[in-house]
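tool_call predict_complex ligand=zinc ion
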Amino acid sequence: MRVANQSGRLKLVLGDTVVDVEAASGGRFSSQPQEIFDRWEEFLAWARTADTTEASPLQPSELGPPVPRPGQIFAVGVNYADHVEESGLTLPDTPFVFTKFPASITGPYDTIEHPGGSVDFEVELVAVIGKHARHTPVDLGWDHIAGLTLGQDLSERDLQLSGPPPQQFNLGKSFSGFAPIGPMLVTPEEFPDRDDIGVSTVLSGELMQSSRTRHLIFSVPALVAFLSSIVALRPGDLIFTGTPAGIGFTREPRRLIGLDDELISRAEVIGEMRHRFTPTQRPHPITAAEKADNHV
Ligand code: ZN
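tool_result ok
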Protein backbone atom coordinates (compact mmCIF):
# COMPACT_ATOMS: atom_id res chain seq x y z
CA MET A 1 0.00 0.00 0.00
CA ARG A 2 1.05 3.58 -0.73
CA VAL A 3 -0.11 6.72 0.99
CA ALA A 4 0.61 10.34 0.14
CA ASN A 5 -0.04 13.83 1.45
CA GLN A 6 -1.75 15.67 -1.40
CA SER A 7 -2.72 19.29 -0.69
CA GLY A 8 -2.40 18.54 3.02
CA ARG A 9 -4.84 15.60 2.94
CA LEU A 10 -4.13 11.91 3.45
CA LYS A 11 -4.59 9.90 0.25
CA LEU A 12 -4.36 6.27 -0.72
CA VAL A 13 -2.29 6.05 -3.90
CA LEU A 14 -3.49 3.66 -6.62
CA GLY A 15 -1.21 3.93 -9.64
CA ASP A 16 -1.61 7.48 -10.93
CA THR A 17 -4.79 8.14 -8.99
CA VAL A 18 -5.51 8.93 -5.35
CA VAL A 19 -8.43 8.25 -3.02
CA ASP A 20 -9.21 10.67 -0.20
CA VAL A 21 -9.04 8.69 3.05
CA GLU A 22 -11.42 10.82 5.10
CA ALA A 23 -14.07 10.80 2.39
CA ALA A 24 -13.71 7.12 1.45
CA SER A 25 -13.83 6.08 5.10
CA GLY A 26 -16.91 8.17 5.81
CA GLY A 27 -14.96 10.24 8.33
CA ARG A 28 -13.65 7.24 10.27
CA PHE A 29 -10.09 8.40 9.58
CA SER A 30 -8.87 12.00 9.68
CA SER A 31 -7.70 13.85 6.59
CA GLN A 32 -4.52 14.80 8.49
CA PRO A 33 -1.56 12.70 7.26
CA GLN A 34 0.25 12.79 10.62
CA GLU A 35 -2.69 11.39 12.60
CA ILE A 36 -2.91 8.06 10.80
CA PHE A 37 0.18 6.55 12.44
CA ASP A 38 -1.52 6.32 15.83
CA ARG A 39 -4.09 3.99 14.23
CA TRP A 40 -1.86 2.34 11.65
CA GLU A 41 -2.97 -1.30 12.10
CA GLU A 42 -6.63 -0.32 11.99
CA PHE A 43 -5.98 1.84 8.94
CA LEU A 44 -4.17 -0.98 7.11
CA ALA A 45 -7.08 -3.35 7.74
CA TRP A 46 -9.56 -0.76 6.42
CA ALA A 47 -7.42 0.09 3.37
CA ARG A 48 -7.37 -3.54 2.22
CA THR A 49 -11.13 -3.50 1.63
CA ALA A 50 -11.75 0.22 1.11
CA ASP A 51 -14.14 1.44 -1.58
CA THR A 52 -11.75 3.16 -4.00
CA THR A 53 -14.21 4.01 -6.77
CA GLU A 54 -14.03 7.77 -6.05
CA ALA A 55 -10.48 8.26 -7.32
CA SER A 56 -8.96 11.49 -8.65
CA PRO A 57 -5.63 12.16 -10.42
CA LEU A 58 -2.37 12.05 -8.49
CA GLN A 59 -0.97 15.60 -8.71
CA PRO A 60 2.79 15.47 -8.06
CA SER A 61 3.06 19.26 -7.71
CA GLU A 62 0.58 19.13 -4.81
CA LEU A 63 2.39 16.44 -2.83
CA GLY A 64 3.66 17.42 0.61
CA PRO A 65 5.76 15.41 3.05
CA PRO A 66 3.99 12.08 3.79
CA VAL A 67 4.92 12.55 7.48
CA PRO A 68 4.58 16.32 7.99
CA ARG A 69 5.06 16.63 11.77
CA PRO A 70 7.07 13.74 13.19
CA GLY A 71 7.49 13.83 16.97
CA GLN A 72 11.09 12.69 16.71
CA ILE A 73 13.58 12.41 13.88
CA PHE A 74 16.53 10.11 14.40
CA ALA A 75 19.30 10.33 11.83
CA VAL A 76 22.22 7.96 11.53
CA GLY A 77 25.64 9.12 10.42
CA VAL A 78 28.31 7.00 8.70
CA ASN A 79 26.08 3.95 8.15
CA TYR A 80 27.58 2.79 4.83
CA ALA A 81 31.16 1.50 4.79
CA ASP A 82 32.06 3.43 1.60
CA HIS A 83 30.82 6.69 3.16
CA VAL A 84 32.80 5.97 6.35
CA GLU A 85 35.91 5.68 4.18
CA GLU A 86 35.36 8.93 2.24
CA SER A 87 34.71 10.75 5.53
CA GLY A 88 38.07 9.60 6.91
CA LEU A 89 36.38 7.95 9.90
CA THR A 90 36.52 4.45 11.34
CA LEU A 91 33.69 1.91 11.22
CA PRO A 92 31.38 2.55 14.18
CA ASP A 93 30.61 -0.14 16.76
CA THR A 94 27.24 1.40 17.55
CA PRO A 95 25.11 3.73 15.41
CA PHE A 96 26.18 7.39 15.42
CA VAL A 97 22.89 9.23 15.96
CA PHE A 98 21.89 12.88 15.68
CA THR A 99 18.59 14.66 15.00
CA LYS A 100 17.13 16.80 12.31
CA PHE A 101 14.67 19.10 14.06
CA PRO A 102 11.11 18.43 12.87
CA ALA A 103 10.57 21.97 11.54
CA SER A 104 13.16 21.17 8.83
CA ILE A 105 10.71 18.76 7.13
CA THR A 106 9.51 19.74 3.65
CA GLY A 107 7.86 18.12 0.64
CA PRO A 108 9.21 16.21 -2.36
CA TYR A 109 8.99 19.04 -4.92
CA ASP A 110 9.33 22.17 -2.80
CA THR A 111 11.85 24.95 -3.35
CA ILE A 112 14.35 24.95 -0.49
CA GLU A 113 16.02 27.97 1.11
CA HIS A 114 19.79 27.95 0.49
CA PRO A 115 21.62 29.64 3.36
CA GLY A 116 24.99 29.86 1.58
CA GLY A 117 28.00 28.11 3.04
CA SER A 118 28.61 24.47 2.04
CA VAL A 119 25.20 22.90 1.34
CA ASP A 120 25.57 19.18 0.56
CA PHE A 121 23.30 16.29 -0.40
CA GLU A 122 22.82 12.92 1.35
CA VAL A 123 20.21 10.62 -0.15
CA GLU A 124 18.72 8.29 2.47
CA LEU A 125 16.05 5.69 3.00
CA VAL A 126 13.71 6.92 5.73
CA ALA A 127 11.80 4.49 7.96
CA VAL A 128 8.51 5.59 9.52
CA ILE A 129 7.46 4.14 12.87
CA GLY A 130 3.95 2.63 12.89
CA LYS A 131 3.89 0.96 16.29
CA HIS A 132 5.28 2.03 19.68
CA ALA A 133 8.72 0.46 20.23
CA ARG A 134 10.61 0.11 23.51
CA HIS A 135 13.31 -2.53 24.07
CA THR A 136 12.29 -4.13 20.78
CA PRO A 137 14.42 -7.09 19.71
CA VAL A 138 16.03 -6.97 16.26
CA ASP A 139 13.93 -9.82 14.89
CA LEU A 140 10.76 -7.83 15.63
CA GLY A 141 12.14 -4.53 14.35
CA TRP A 142 10.29 -4.53 11.02
CA ASP A 143 6.95 -5.08 12.83
CA HIS A 144 7.25 -1.52 14.16
CA ILE A 145 7.74 0.10 10.75
CA ALA A 146 4.64 1.55 9.03
CA GLY A 147 6.48 2.12 5.80
CA LEU A 148 9.44 3.56 4.01
CA THR A 149 9.97 6.82 2.22
CA LEU A 150 12.83 8.68 0.57
CA GLY A 151 14.69 11.55 2.18
CA GLN A 152 17.57 13.95 1.71
CA ASP A 153 19.66 14.68 4.79
CA LEU A 154 20.66 18.11 3.48
CA SER A 155 23.65 19.39 5.41
CA GLU A 156 25.39 22.76 5.64
CA ARG A 157 28.90 21.50 6.33
CA ASP A 158 30.38 24.78 7.58
CA LEU A 159 27.96 24.92 10.51
CA GLN A 160 27.80 21.14 10.93
CA LEU A 161 31.56 20.85 11.37
CA SER A 162 32.19 24.18 13.13
CA GLY A 163 33.86 24.49 16.50
CA PRO A 164 35.63 21.90 18.58
CA PRO A 165 33.85 18.58 19.24
CA PRO A 166 30.99 18.14 19.94
CA GLN A 167 30.15 19.85 16.68
CA GLN A 168 26.89 21.27 15.36
CA PHE A 169 25.46 18.23 13.53
CA ASN A 170 21.90 18.87 14.67
CA LEU A 171 21.81 22.51 13.58
CA GLY A 172 23.88 22.10 10.42
CA LYS A 173 21.37 19.51 9.20
CA SER A 174 18.23 21.35 10.36
CA PHE A 175 18.05 24.53 8.31
CA SER A 176 14.50 25.18 7.15
CA GLY A 177 13.65 22.68 4.40
CA PHE A 178 16.73 20.53 5.01
CA ALA A 179 14.65 17.36 5.60
CA PRO A 180 12.67 16.83 2.40
CA ILE A 181 10.79 13.51 2.33
CA GLY A 182 8.48 11.82 -0.15
CA PRO A 183 7.04 11.51 -2.68
CA MET A 184 4.99 8.93 -0.76
CA LEU A 185 5.13 6.32 1.97
CA VAL A 186 5.28 2.69 0.84
CA THR A 187 4.59 -0.28 3.09
CA PRO A 188 7.44 -2.80 3.42
CA GLU A 189 5.68 -5.69 1.65
CA GLU A 190 5.57 -3.65 -1.58
CA PHE A 191 9.33 -4.08 -2.02
CA PRO A 192 10.81 -7.18 -3.69
CA ASP A 193 13.31 -7.11 -0.78
CA ARG A 194 12.70 -4.52 1.96
CA ASP A 195 16.37 -4.83 3.01
CA ASP A 196 17.78 -4.13 -0.45
CA ILE A 197 16.50 -0.88 -1.94
CA GLY A 198 18.45 1.19 -4.46
CA VAL A 199 18.90 4.90 -3.67
CA SER A 200 20.60 7.59 -5.74
CA THR A 201 21.27 11.31 -6.12
CA VAL A 202 21.56 13.20 -9.41
CA LEU A 203 22.75 16.81 -9.19
CA SER A 204 22.05 18.86 -12.32
CA GLY A 205 22.30 15.78 -14.53
CA GLU A 206 25.33 14.17 -12.87
CA LEU A 207 24.97 10.93 -10.92
CA MET A 208 26.54 11.64 -7.52
CA GLN A 209 25.39 8.79 -5.27
CA SER A 210 24.13 5.30 -6.06
CA SER A 211 23.95 2.40 -3.64
CA ARG A 212 21.65 -0.14 -2.06
CA THR A 213 20.39 -0.45 1.50
CA ARG A 214 21.81 -3.97 1.81
CA HIS A 215 25.11 -2.13 2.34
CA LEU A 216 23.83 -0.46 5.53
CA ILE A 217 26.08 -1.24 8.49
CA PHE A 218 23.08 -1.03 10.86
CA SER A 219 19.87 -2.24 9.17
CA VAL A 220 16.40 -0.80 9.78
CA PRO A 221 15.50 -3.49 12.40
CA ALA A 222 18.90 -3.09 14.08
CA LEU A 223 18.29 0.66 14.35
CA VAL A 224 14.83 0.06 15.85
CA ALA A 225 16.38 -2.30 18.41
CA PHE A 226 19.21 0.07 19.32
CA LEU A 227 17.18 3.30 19.46
CA SER A 228 14.25 1.71 21.33
CA SER A 229 16.65 0.40 23.96
CA ILE A 230 17.28 4.03 24.87
CA VAL A 231 14.01 5.86 24.29
CA ALA A 232 10.51 4.98 23.09
CA LEU A 233 9.91 5.20 19.34
CA ARG A 234 6.41 6.45 18.71
CA PRO A 235 4.05 6.22 15.74
CA GLY A 236 4.97 8.84 13.16
CA ASP A 237 8.61 9.14 14.21
CA LEU A 238 11.25 9.02 11.47
CA ILE A 239 14.61 7.31 11.14
CA PHE A 240 16.93 8.72 8.45
CA THR A 241 19.07 5.62 7.95
CA GLY A 242 22.30 7.15 6.62
CA THR A 243 23.82 8.01 3.25
CA PRO A 244 26.16 6.10 0.94
CA ALA A 245 29.39 7.41 -0.63
CA GLY A 246 29.49 10.23 -3.13
CA ILE A 247 28.64 13.33 -1.08
CA GLY A 248 29.88 16.60 -2.52
CA PHE A 249 31.98 17.85 0.39
CA THR A 250 34.69 15.19 0.16
CA ARG A 251 34.90 15.11 -3.65
CA GLU A 252 37.99 16.34 -5.48
CA PRO A 253 37.09 18.96 -6.55
CA ARG A 254 34.31 19.68 -4.11
CA ARG A 255 30.80 19.69 -5.60
CA LEU A 256 28.29 21.42 -3.37
CA ILE A 257 24.71 22.51 -4.12
CA GLY A 258 24.50 25.93 -5.78
CA LEU A 259 21.51 28.17 -6.41
CA ASP A 260 21.23 27.03 -10.04
CA ASP A 261 21.25 23.32 -9.30
CA GLU A 262 18.41 20.83 -9.53
CA LEU A 263 18.68 18.03 -7.00
CA ILE A 264 16.99 14.75 -7.93
CA SER A 265 16.75 11.97 -5.36
CA ARG A 266 15.52 8.49 -6.18
CA ALA A 267 14.60 5.29 -4.37
CA GLU A 268 13.39 2.10 -6.01
CA VAL A 269 9.65 1.49 -5.67
CA ILE A 270 9.18 4.77 -3.71
CA GLY A 271 9.90 7.21 -6.54
CA GLU A 272 11.76 10.47 -6.91
CA MET A 273 11.96 13.96 -5.44
CA ARG A 274 13.09 17.11 -7.29
CA HIS A 275 14.33 20.20 -5.53
CA ARG A 276 15.47 23.66 -6.51
CA PHE A 277 16.91 26.33 -4.23
CA THR A 278 16.37 29.99 -3.39
CA PRO A 279 18.75 32.20 -1.40
CA THR A 280 18.24 33.11 2.25
CA GLN A 281 20.42 34.82 4.81
CA ARG A 282 23.33 33.25 6.67
CA PRO A 283 22.95 32.15 10.32
CA HIS A 284 22.95 34.98 12.83
CA PRO A 285 26.57 35.78 13.75
CA ILE A 286 26.90 35.86 17.52
CA THR A 287 28.85 38.95 18.57
CA ALA A 288 31.06 39.36 21.61
CA ALA A 289 28.38 41.61 23.14
CA GLU A 290 25.78 38.81 22.86
CA LYS A 291 27.91 36.28 24.70
CA ALA A 292 27.89 36.57 28.49
CA ASP A 293 31.37 36.68 29.92
CA ASN A 294 30.52 34.55 32.96
CA HIS A 295 32.87 31.60 32.66
CA VAL A 296 35.08 30.89 35.66
ZN1 ZN B 1 22.88 11.63 6.71
